[in-house]
Write a structure and sequence with these properties.
This protein has 78 residues and is of the alpha+beta class.
């Protein structure tokens, strides 16, 4: 089920993020890329499902780490 559109990003920015995610993303960008709420993304980070680093107190996720985590979480790889 899609989440409600983010008010932080324009529709064009959302489309661009989903088409080509940045190499390093904040929680807000990650939520857009995954089409989930920031709260659910933060929950996944807290539970260790998605690896992250802190830079100056901000949570950042590398795209490569996200791709590996998603591959690991896939239940029925095709």
């Amino acid at each position: 089920m899609p989440t409600k559109p983010s008010t932080k990003f324009s529709p064009a920015a959302i489309a661009a993020l989903r088409e080509t995610p940045p190499w390093v993303m904040g929680v807000d960008e990650l939520a857009v890329v995954l089409d989930r709420s920031e709260r659910s993304v933060r929950d996944d980070l807290r539970r260790g499902r998605i690896p992250y680093l802190r830079i100056g107190g901000a949570i950042k996720v590398r795209r490569g780490d996200l791709e590996k985590a998603l591959t690991r979480l896939v239940r029925n790889p095709a």
